[in-house]
Amino acid sequence: MDAAMDFLRRRIAGSDSAIPTSTLFERATAAHEETDPTSTIAEFHTSLNGVNQPMNLLFKDILWWTLGITAMIVLVIRISEIMWARLRQVSAMSVSGEKQGFWRTSQWSWMPSMKKHLIYAPLWNKRHNREFRLSSAISIGTLPSRLHSIMLFIYLGSNFAYMFVLNWQQKNRYEFCAELRGRSGTLSLVNMVPLIIFAGRNNPLITILKISFDTYNLLHRWMGRIVVLEALIHTIAWAIVCVADIGWKGVGDEIVSKLFVGSGMVGTVAMVLLMLLSVSPLRHAFYETFLNVHIVLAFVSFVATWVHCASSELAGGLPQLPWIMAIMALWFADRLARMFRILYVNWSSRGFTDAICEPLPGEVTRVTLNLPRYVDIQPGTHAYLRFWGINAWENHPFSICWVSHSSDNSLPVLEKEPLHSVDKSTMTTSVSFLIGAQTGMTRKLFDQVSNSRRSLRMKAAMEGPYAGHHSLDSYGHAVLFAGSTGITHQLSYIRHLLEGYNEGTVATRRITLVWIIREYESLEWVRPYMDTILRIPNRKDVLRIQIFITRPQNPRDIVSASTTVRMFPGRPNVPLLLQKEVQEQKGAMCVTVCGPGALADDVRGAVRVVQGHTVVDFVEESFTW
Ligand SMILES: Cc1cc2nc3c(=O)[nH]c(=O)nc-3n(C[C@H](O)[C@H](O)[C@H](O)COP(=O)(O)OP(=O)(O)OC[C@H]3O[C@@H](n4cnc5c(N)ncnc54)[C@H](O)[C@@H]3O)c2cc1C
């Protein structure tokens, strides 16, 4: 009947007047018989025809609730942890390490094995942050931890399940495709919301849930893959119906002539390119190019998706239109927050930030930024740096090694009077970093500074501080492992804990720093900071330093200065070292590591081995993502 009507309409239009009427009628009837006698095709590649919108909205709710409930559970765990740590800190900060026996012992018998087999466990045996490499230049990435893998498996698995809860009894395969188109498109957009939240440096969940940017970045990568896959299925499901209806040429015409279809196609192509160009070897080898192309393609995908949702023939656009608006708003909010942070930190009536850069042995540059205002910086934070004249469009993350505040035209505040008694509006902050030369911006910086043979002053800007949500104040015992420039992360904690020890504000009674460097000369990197640390009153009561020099040029350099600062040639036996620490454990212990992936994996493995009846927590700071 439809075929006959179709035929009549064309006849009235008169466009086929040269072809005999009977031939046209037969062709029209045959086309419909070939596909499906029970219904038409055309309607199933347009609008919401055949789309099961109630089910789509149900799965949208389920996915967002899954994420929301997970966040709430993490929040409850975090709040309990913070309260527990606060209780520990307040009750232990005024007693000796020997009297912190309650906090030394694990209060829940299941906790050590939970940490060993789940929370701190790598996916299989040992490997987590040591990169898989095809060659010294080509990295193909790292393995997620066991807990992260389980979470990813559940989330990705649920996405696949929701995608295929379709009417499999449907006789009309084009209607089936329409249902798949609706589901995959909806899920793709649903996942884009957390995808974009997790990508932001200013994601508020980092602070609220105390989960590091690394973890969100891992989730971002996997969510990105699922978003692209779903967008691709959405496009293919549409194309199958469209090709059956109007052929490939017709599909091409639709893409060119209809904004709705064209924008959808641009969005899908941009997303597929995004995914292909984000594979680990490319990402690691050409990070800056990857980042710039990634941002441009992400922007194109968002704009195309917005246009796609808005240009639908449905009144008010597709129901997903508000989501893509929210996605764009979140994206711009992060960009705006970053701009605001840069302006706030680096600019005041006193002028703009400048950097003093000094070349150091081992191809390291010490950079001290003089900020034109007071900035409060916690231990364990990092910031993104830009240097005027050295790939100024790039910004790279570096751990904040040392912070000092000074009042206008006076001595650093640290050496004078307590900070709370000083008017902060009259103060400025200096922030120091140690930057190892790699092959890109860091190499250019080092070359420029070492060619000048003395310290170089240049304009620079800092975006941050970021992170710093791991407080060690409630631990009686801190064991800090650092590899090479990873010392930056650990130094900030040492000074804070020693000062806290003297002021009676922290529970810490023992700090063991284990630093692994290649050459003796690397000690020069931290000499001014170490001198200050070693001069802090009572530091001998608390701090033990062990330095391991893996390739000493002259073995006679390896001399231990005292029983509290010792030097050794070669690598440390991490498991043995940690076992000795646990034998002498004071209160609850936290082991942290910052350095190359292989060292981090060794320390993680050793922490898992010592999980027994005492409390041994583990925190890892990674320099790669
Ligand atoms: C939180 C954090 C803290 C860090 N702290 C320090 C530190 O205190 N001292 C130090 O020497 N290094 C630190 N790094 C590493 C440092 O950021 C990189 O070595 C630096 O960005 C390399 O710049 P490049 O242009 O010379 O890199 P390239 O030689 O081009 O690449 C070297 C490696 O660095 C990675 N990389 C390049 N650019 C970035 C970027 N913008 N963000 C993340 N990774 C990048 C590449 O993927 C590659 O694996 C830290 C990294 C992170 C994530």
UniProtKB/TrEMBL annotation:
Subcellular location as annotated: Membrane
Where is the signal peptide, in residue numbers? none
Extract one GO BP annotation from the record: copper ion import
Alphabetized InterPro entries for the sequence? FAD-bd_8, FAD-bd_FR_type, Fe3_Rdtase_TM_dom, Fe_red_NAD-bd_6, Ferric/Cupric_Reductase, FNR_nucleotide-bd
Keyword list (alphabetical) reads: Electron transport, Ion transport, Membrane, Oxidoreductase, Transmembrane, Transmembrane helix, Transport
One GO MF term on file is: ferric-chelate reductase activity
Using the record's annotation, list all stretches that form the FAD-binding FR-type domain: 329-472
Q: Where are the transmembrane segments?
A: 62-79, 147-165, 185-201, 222-247, 259-277, 289-308, 314-333
User: Which residues, by range, are in coiled-coil regions?
Assistant: none
Q: What membrane topology does this protein have?
A: Multi-pass membrane protein
**Keyword Magnesium in annotation:** no
What is the superkingdom listed in this entry's lineage? Eukaryota
Q: Which GO terms describe its cellular component?
A: plasma membrane
Record family assignment: Belongs to the ferric reductase (FRE) family.
What protein name does the entry list? FAD-binding FR-type domain-containing protein
According to its UniProt entry, this protein's organism is: Cylindrodendrum hubeiense
